[in-house]
């Protein structure tokens, strides 16, 4: 495994472990998701550049578009929950009370 591939794998793993173990605030969960998506985007862009195929050149842009949609939906949920609950702590969110 090259050092570049190792660094992107490590970035994805750190984002995933941050999402799994440090679930106190909704904003930190969203930042971990964005770190995971950023590492996937850079890895896919380098992969399509290394294969030199025009067939896979649109895949990183599609992933970036989906990542932007995910970020906007996450921020909308963050604003909605902070307005209704007064905080972004994940412990205060209960689906049974909605």
From TrEMBL:
Localization per Swiss-Prot or TrEMBL: Mitochondrion inner membrane; Mitochondrion membrane
Ranges annotated as spanning the membrane: 6-22, 29-49, 61-81
Protein name: NADH-ubiquinone oxidoreductase chain 4L
A Pfam family hit: Oxidored_q2
Keyword Phosphoprotein in annotation: no
Similarity annotation: Belongs to the complex I subunit 4L family.
Function summary: Core subunit of the mitochondrial membrane respiratory chain NADH dehydrogenase (Complex I) which catalyzes electron transfer from NADH through the respiratory chain, using ubiquinone as an electron acceptor. Part of the enzyme membrane arm which is embedded in the lipid bilayer and involved in proton translocation.
Membrane topology listed for this record: Multi-pass membrane protein
Organism: Anguilla bengalensis bengalensis
Reaction(s) the record says it catalyses: a ubiquinone + NADH + 5 H(+)(in) = a ubiquinol + NAD(+) + 4 H(+)(out)
GO cellular component, as recorded: mitochondrial inner membrane; NADH dehydrogenase complex; respiratory chain complex; transmembrane transporter complex
Main subcellular location of this protein, as a coarse class: mitochondrion
Gene Ontology molecular function terms on file: NADH dehydrogenase (ubiquinone) activity; oxidoreductase activity, acting on NAD(P)H
Keyword Acyltransferase included in the entry's annotation: no
């Amino acid at each position: 495994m090259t050092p570049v591939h190792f660094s992107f794998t490590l970035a994805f793993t750190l984002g995933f472990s941050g999402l799994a173990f440090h679930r106190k605030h909704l904003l930190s969960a969203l930042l971990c998701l964005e770190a995971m998506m950023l590492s996937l985007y850079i890895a896919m862009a380098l992969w399509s550049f290394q294969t030199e195929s025009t067939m896979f050149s649109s895949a990183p842009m599609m992933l970036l578009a989906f990542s932007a949609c995910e970020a906007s939906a996450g921020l909308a949920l963050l604003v909605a929950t902070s307005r209704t609950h007064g905080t972004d702590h994940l412990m205060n969110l209960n689906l049974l009370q909605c």
